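Here is an idea for our session: we take a single protein and study its fold together. Start from the sequence, derive the backbone structure tokens from it, and show both lines together. Once you have written the record down, we can walk along the chain together:
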Amino acid sequence: MSSLKPQVKNPMLCTSADGEECSAHGAGHALSTMHGRLASATPSKWRDGIAGDTTDDGWTPIALLEPDAAGDNIVWVWNHARGLVASGEPVALHSVYGALAVGAARFNVLVAASIA
């Protein structure tokens, strides 16, 4: 994975209006109860990182504190709700279930590449 922003156009369109809770449970949308429980049940798969500036189309670079299996330290994630995380904020990214932890909050994210 490089530090180049992914060139994905409209990764998943959401039918929820701004301010409404998302009803979709695909990558980058609402975190289902089961999804959250699976991520919580596998604590060894969380990777610590620092969030970068979110782009206008919702992609956020995560600078992993330890490189992933491919040796990359920048992973791009997307969520339809912009403003989940501030630039420079510490986060944790689940390498199996595509969950992003920001403090006590958990979000479902689309990950641009594997971080196993």
About this structure: The longest strand covers residues 46-51.
